[in-house]
Design brief:
By secondary structure, the chain is α/β, with parallel strands linked by helices. The chain has 13 helices and 14 strands. The protein is 39% helix and 15% strand. The strands form four sheets. Strands 2-1-3-4-5-6 form a six-stranded parallel β-sheet, with helices on both faces. Strands 7-10-11 form a three-stranded parallel β-sheet. The termini are far apart. The chain binds iron/sulfur cluster.
Length: 385
């Protein structure tokens, strides 16, 4: 057992987090839970190392495996726990590619991690434990019975999980299951806990936040934000990524009237060609997206809009790429997140004809990154003084 700090006398653990704000929230919640069970956080040699993995792209999946191998190299005697989207999607891969993992838990059942870890440490056997729950089977929203432990100045609150849109390129939907919302009371409690402990900005996140409340009575995202807005502490709220069709007029109105919700929308566009949006299975056209942006600017003229764009989606012709560039430029998007298309195993897009040649994809990514720099500079210049 490694050196213990005064607070907890239990085994030590470290958590390495990859991926999105949802993962950041879950790592902080797992940490809160482990501390509550008497374990103590250590960034040196640890008895337990937890990798909260990501599989949104090939690169993210590769990085998850690499972090696991490196953690074991650094802590040969440590219990290695691999959890998160990579574990949920590719448990068989892990058998072959990450034999070092002692415990494999997907995206569900992590509120039981302390017991699983302590039992494993007591048993001292090295037999691998794999706990992957089937999703899209009526799963409930999983609460972690502890206050998430954040070291960063902008904590995250998870309000929702899962999706029902089935975009053809997306593996997340298989990793996160059907849409399920968290009760507003727990969300308000958590926001108050963060604000009372001095945090000045809180990030609100979910897999598809626009679906918040579809499984609850008389609540949706705008109504929830109003409740958080009523808290009497000096903090601001920032929404993380939200699908375009989730940005309703009701939401824009609440954002515009609020004195604390940041005038910021992170709204994935993915393509500026409606032909490609159709192949992606997205539930809007370029014209729909443009209308939402223009309406948001009417409510909040100073709004900052960030967009994800996938470059090199199967079937993308040069003219589609041009359309994406023109759409982003004409909408004066303030920040672009450029994703080279990454085929995800088992997704419909993986089997689509017209896979784009790597050199052409590379060329288009370079062009898109140059545009991203230009548009970001234009936005920042507007704020000078
Ligand atoms: S909206 Fe589409 S991209 Fe987003 S999680 Fe759902 S299926 Fe995936």
């Amino acid at each position: 057992m490694s050196e213990k700090n005064a607070k907890n006398s239990g085994p030590s653990f470290d958590i390495i987090t990859l991926g999105c704000p949802l993962n950041q929230y879950e790592s902080a919640a797992i940490e809160g839970l482990l501390l509550k069970h008497g374990l103590n956080r250590s960034r040196d040699k640890s008895d337990v190392v937890i990798i909260n993995s990501c599989a949104v792209t090939q690169a993210a999946a590769r990085r998850s495996r690499k972090e696991a191998r490196q953690a074991k190299k650094k802590n040969p005697n440590a219990l290695l726990v691999l959890t998160g989207c990579y574990s949920q999607l590719y448990p068989r891969d892990i058998e072959k590619l990450v034999p070092e993992a002692d415990i494999v838990v997907g995206t569900a059942g992590r509120s039981k991690l302390p017991e699983i870890i302590l039992q494993k440490l007591d048993q001292k056997d090295r037999e691998k434990r794999v706990l992957i729950q089937q999703l899209h089977k009526g799963e409930e929203f999983e609460e972690f019975d502890a206050v998430p432990k954040f070291y960063r100045h902008r904590p995250v609150i998870k309000i929702q999980e899962g999706c029902n849109q089935f975009c053809t390129f997306c593996a997340v939907i298989f990793a996160r299951g059907k849409p399920r919302s968290r009760g507003p009371e727990r969300i308000i409690e958590e926001a108050e806990a963060y604000a009372a402990s001095g945090h000045r900005e809180i990030i609100i996140t979910g897999t598809n936040m626009g679906l918040y409340g579809i499984d609850l009575e008389d609540i949706n995202l705008p109504k929830l934000l109003k409740k958080i807005d009523d808290l009497d502490y000096p903090f601001r709220i920032r929404l993380s990524s939200i699908e375009p069709m989730g940005v309703t007029e009701e939401l824009m109105e609440v954002m515009a009237k609020s004195r604390r919700i940041c005038h910021y929308l992170y709204m994935p566009l993915q393509s500026g060609s409606s032909r490609i949006l159709k192949l992606m299975g997205r539930n809007y056209t370029v014209e729909d997206y443009r209308e939402i942006v223009e309406k948001a600017r009417k409510f909040m003229p100073d709004i900052s809009i960030m967009a994800d764009i996938i470059v090199g989606f199967p079937g993308e012709r040069d003219e589609d790429h041009r359309k994406s560039m023109e759409t982003l430029r004409s909408l004066e998007i303030s920040k672009i997140h450029v994703f080279p298309y990454s085929p995800r195993p088992g997704t419909p897009a993986e089997a689509l004809k017209g896979q784009v040649r790597p050199d052409i994809k590379k060329q288009r990514v370079e062009e898109m990154n140059l545009l991203a720099e230009e548009l970001s500079m234009n936005f920042h210049k507007k704020l000078l003084g």
